[in-house]
Amino acid sequence: MNNIIPAAALQGLRVIEMGQLIAGPFAGKTLGEFGADVVKIEAPGSGDPLRNWRLIKDGTSVWWQVQSRNKRSIALDLRSGEGQDVARKLIAEADVLIENFRPGTLERWGMGWEELSKVNPGLVMLRISGYGQTGPYRDLPGFGAIGEAMGGLRHLTGEPGRVPVRCGISIGDTLAALHGTIGILTALYHRKVNGGLGQVIDVALNEAVFNVMESLVPEYSAFGAVREAAGSALPGIAPSNAYRCTDGFVLIAGNGDSIFKRLMQTIGRNDLATAPTLADNAGRVARADELDQAIEAWTLMQPVQEVLDILGAAGVPAGKVYTAKDIAEDPHYRARDMILSQTTRDGYEVDVPGVVPKLLGTPGTVRSSAPGLGDDTDEVLQELGFSIQDIAAMRGRKVVA
């Protein structure tokens, strides 16, 4: 059996992460899982606020254990001139810089693109902000929730006529991070084949959300149609909805032509399966309410698992609404290494999400657990050429911690 571990896809890539909370750090997390050396700069004393978000175990958020695995932490005061000098030295030897401060912050610290590109022409710089680095809104504060609203997502979430709701996670931040990661990899490829020059990637939270809004604007442009919230249904595609069972809800996607016929036959509605007006999506959309009522009349007579078993045998896509408990106990998640046991630096074991996407030749891995604040300060500074005495002196001046 061949036990040779393949080299990581991004082995040798040096990333400096200056962001905090979600959008920037999620991009750093993704690169780190595929082998990049991610050095995270944090403020001495406080560190990344995510360390203290949501549920805390042994003084640290369990969210932090996911977001910051495979990273090294250096506690560095970026508001001091000396700290900025150290940061510039780090960036001068890096391939990628990730930051998600408000536009203009790095420029005030003497670390704008003009300055950094002079000392490192090959630098790829990801800048994530609320509204981008240009435009009339660039200086406004922006969080993921605001990006979701401006991007058009919040208007579509929830029940018709009721208050717009969020999807339950910081999806705007994560979408921005994923777009930023795509931008980094694209810019690195361009650098490789076009003379070694880096560039800036400008990602706005609202634009990352807007980019996944499908036909929202084309429909308005062509028809003046403003898409509205539709609850659990998918407007313009039928049948696709959540349906009540005796013990919960099941999602059924019966909107493919052949799938629809199998679904109707399975629930005992051959009259609908063979109706010429329901042979395509346009006809089904016109009778979507009728179809939903027919499906739910059937699902209401049985529990979720029985519905799933019957529809699975019939080749109809269906699924239950998973909770965290369902995910943690699901054998398919386990079989695909999507639930991993990770040992934290505090010594306890915690289940965390696996790595996505799955590269079969150079798979992503969890090489190290999330660091404590400043755990790697000395190591990183010594790599830059600072002596133990230099570091001790900087620590005395509170430049590092």
From TrEMBL:
InterPro entries named among the record's database cross-references: CoA-transferase_III_domain, CoA-Trfase_fam_III, CoA-Trfase_III_dom3_sf, CoA-Trfase_III_dom_1_sf
Keywords for this protein: Transferase
One term of GO molecular function: CoA-transferase activity
Keyword Cell cycle part of the UniProt annotation: no
Keyword set includes Cell cycle: no
PANTHER family: SUCCINATE--HYDROXYMETHYLGLUTARATE COA-TRANSFERASE
Protein name in the entry: L-carnitine dehydratase/bile acid-inducible protein F
Native species: Caballeronia terrestris
